[in-house]
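Saturday, quiet lab. Running sequence design on the structure tokens for the scaffold JK sent over.
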């Protein structure tokens, strides 16, 4: 029996089914004859990742997505107490699983992932966008990149992880399979996560309009 529709699911289906989705993915990853976006290296910069601690390569990788971790914040995450606390939380967050595969409890408030996100917000100089991108770097298949552009396109929901999880799992994981199909059709490597494909399709669909129209989400600082 088909699952219930949701506003987020409807928006995702609209953009993932767009004729531009494959074209924009190919352009983003430099597969259409032009230079790739720097964000194409976000998941893979530096080769094999260290799963349960923030590394200098992670801090460089988030710069590929146009955010910067200030020097003092970087030192705190690399050598300080907050970095050690984050490592303890990362050890409790599943590795090498897709968001669609886990129970919603892994994403609820007070889950290890949620606690890690909130811990990062307590590091001076790190806002919600950067916190999310750092966690997406550490768990690219489980936690999504999320910024003002995508937030605005989706109608500025007050929460994102759980509605996205529900949308991906609806109708026998239909949207997740759509993302995998888009990745294959665009010729994007299988090492790029389904969540990253989703983010890129949404971001490229709205970035230009977002800047030109100064949409409500543009420049906001709170989730």
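Result came back. Writing it out in full:
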């Amino acid at each position: 029996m088909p699952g219930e529709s949701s506003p987020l699911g409807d928006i995702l289906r609209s953009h993932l089914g767009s004729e531009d989705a494959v074209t924009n993915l190919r352009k983003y990853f430099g597969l259409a004859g032009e230079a790739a976006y720097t964000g194409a290296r976000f998941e893979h910069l530096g080769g094999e990742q260290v799963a349960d601690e923030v590394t200098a390569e992670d801090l460089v990788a988030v710069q590929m997505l146009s955010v910067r971790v200030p020097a003092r914040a970087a030192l705190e995450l690399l050598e300080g107490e907050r970095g050690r606390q984050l490592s303890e939380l990362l050890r409790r967050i599943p590795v090498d699983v897709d968001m669609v595969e886990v129970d919603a409890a892994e994403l609820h408030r007070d889950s290890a992932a949620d606690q890690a996100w909130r811990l990062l917000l307590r590091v001076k100089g790190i806002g919600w966008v950067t916190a999310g991108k750092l966690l997406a770097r550490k768990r690219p298949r489980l936690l999504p990149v999320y910024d003002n552009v995508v937030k605005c396109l989706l109608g500025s929901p007050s929460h994102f992880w759980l509605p996205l999880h529900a949308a991906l799992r609806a109708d026998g994981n239909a949207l997740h399979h759509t993302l995998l199909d888009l990745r294959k059709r665009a010729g994007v490597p299988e090492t790029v996560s389904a969540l990253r494909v989703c983010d890129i399709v949404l971001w490229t669909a709205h970035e230009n309009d977002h800047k030109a129209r100064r949409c409500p989400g543009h420049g906001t600082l709170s989730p």
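Notes for JK: The chain is about 55% helix and 0% strand. Residues 217-223 have pLDDT under 50 and may be disordered. Ask whether to fix the surface positions before the next round.
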